Amino acid sequence: MRKLVYYVAVTLDGFIAAEDGTFDGFIFEGDHMAGINAHYPDTVPTQFRAAVELADAPNQHFDTVLMGRHTYQVPGGLASPYAHLRQFVVTSADLDTPADVEVVREDVVGRVQALKAEDGLDIWLCGGGKLAATLLPEIDRLLLKIHPVVFGRGIPLFDGKADIRKFARTDATLFESGVSFMTYDRV
């Protein structure tokens, strides 16, 4: 069975974006970028893959991406940010999306359970915090890029009521840039 993997950048104080949904405070230069991109090329937006020499890189971990509306509609966002993956946006709002981006308007938990039952690579939960809180019972793994920065306020890693779930750290990589890449699996 495929896993739902919440793979996201997060601040030391637990935010995945600023209050306005931007993430300019994260570190985009340093040894962590090459290291993470080499291991997770599937998570680089299609438009930028050639620039980081990943244009022809096969998907190693994910073939599907799931994101909330605010993650999909980040300022300066792309209509089809991950064209190399099967793309889903969860929202109740009316969105004008290209044919390769499917909108999920109801029963997101049921839709994720159906996706997990399909054959294929894992499912990447790209954001946001409200969607992550809703899907916490279905999240099998957390991949956290912890940046050495504090936002003070913003969009939390899990935004909303969620039942307690325990995870065990299964891997950790520390980079000279100060970014830590942590892997946690549900226990």
Can you walk through the features of this model?
There is one protein chain. The chain is α/β, with parallel strands linked by helices and 187 residues long. The chain has a single domain, classed as 3-Layer(aba) Sandwich (Dihydrofolate Reductase, subunit A), CATH 3.40.430.10. It has 5 helices and 10 strands, in the order ββααβαββαβαββββ. Strands 5-4-3-6-1-7-10-9 form an 8-stranded mixed β-sheet. It has a two-stranded antiparallel ribbon with strand order 2-8. The two termini are 16 Å apart. 33% of the residues are buried. The mean pLDDT is 95.
Total E-strand runs: 10
Going by CATH, the architecture would be 3-Layer(aba) Sandwich
Shape: globular
Total domain modules? 1
Q: Would you tell me which CATH topology applies?
A: Dihydrofolate Reductase, subunit A
Task: Indicate the low-confidence ranges by residue numbers.
Answer: none
- By CATH's scheme, which homologous superfamily applies? Dihydrofolate Reductase, subunit A
- Strand percentage lies at 25-35%
* Spatial order of the strands forming the largest sheet: 5-4-3-6-1-7-10-9
Give the N-terminus to C-terminus distance in angstroms: 16 Å
In round numbers, the mean pLDDT is 95
Largest sheet: 8 strands, mixed
CATH class: Alpha Beta
Secondary-structure element order, as H and E? EEHHEHEEHEHEEEE
* Alpha-beta content class: alpha/beta
Number of helices: 5
Helical proportion, percent range: 10-25%
Radius of gyration: 16 Å
